[in-house]
Amino acid sequence: MPCSGFISPTWNQTAAVSGRLSAKHPNIQAIPTQPIQIAKLQYIRGKEAEVATISPRSMFVSSDGWTFLAADFSHIELRILAHLTSDPELLRLFQEPEPPDIFSTLASQWRGIRVDQVKLADREQAKRIVYALVYGAGKDRLSECLHVSTSQAGQFIESFLQKYKEVRTFTQRTIQQCHQRGGF
Predict the structure, then answer these.
(1) What is the reported pTM?
(2) Which residue of 14, 81, 110, 183 sits 20 to 30 Å from the alpha carbon of 163, by its own alpha carbon?
(3) CATH of domain 76-181
């Protein structure tokens, strides 16, 4: 196939288990957003390696008169949960003009530490707890994901539900409605 100078991936609307849109051939979503460093080793004694920093996404240039659009449904599941539950604490997370990283904020609340003290592992743990709750995974599945005991996973879930009380109410109401009206 001749090179046209254009990138044209195949977009999949139903391929990802998460339900998200995905791309392949090439997977342009996997292009790093953060700059990367490339070291050119020197073979002269005493000469340091030359390091170049590049931003992979900056290598893509649109044609004259055109532009690239990047769109992200940032924390969409959590935003929907906040809307459906009307939980004031959860809604407040999204009402700031420049919202902080939601999962770092949640991790700091659960750990009782400042946001700048949250480690990547804490953030990932918070993210998994949220998605376990959103998708109804339960403490058994969460314990597998976090590599913690079922008891600890249950405590993580309970601490989230204590902070965001309307999530529990919404979940219980939804389950009750499914029983009354029949599930699928």
Answers:
(1) 0.61
(2) 183
(3) 1.10.150
